[in-house]
Amino acid sequence: MDGQNTFERVLLLWQEADEEKRAIELEHLLSDDFVYVDAHLPETLNGREAFNDFLSLFRSRVENAIVESRVPLQRVKMHARCGFRLIKDGNILGQGEYFLTFEGDRISRMCGFVDDRPAEQNS
After folding, report:
1. pTM for this one?
2. Which of 60, 95, 100, 114 yields a CA-CA distance of 20 to 30 A from 83?
3. Ramachandran bin of 90, using left for φ above 0, alpha for ψ from -120 to 50, beta for the remaining angles
4. Count of C-beta atoms within a 10 Å radius of residue 16
5. 3-class SS at 82?
């Protein structure tokens, strides 16, 4: 498996309002020792529960936004990268890249960078 499906399913969870549903899905998609690092966070998030809490916080701050991949995931062995964009009401609010590490079919590390340049509507 190339990891694209796993990554796409994680991105869909940014839209899921039900924390319990997210937790169940995250159990299948993220490793037991999952780590999330984001340029906008003051500290590293350790574990699926911390990431799920972050998704709840994100949803409360940017209601009805979606996060989607903007280019296919590129993978080399256990490492991958993929571009993403944040969209709300049809407008691109931001875009960037995630760098991922996989343990089998599950993601063990996810590191996000947001582009400083303005997002293009058709990129």
Report:
1. 0.88
2. 60
3. left
4. 17
5. strand
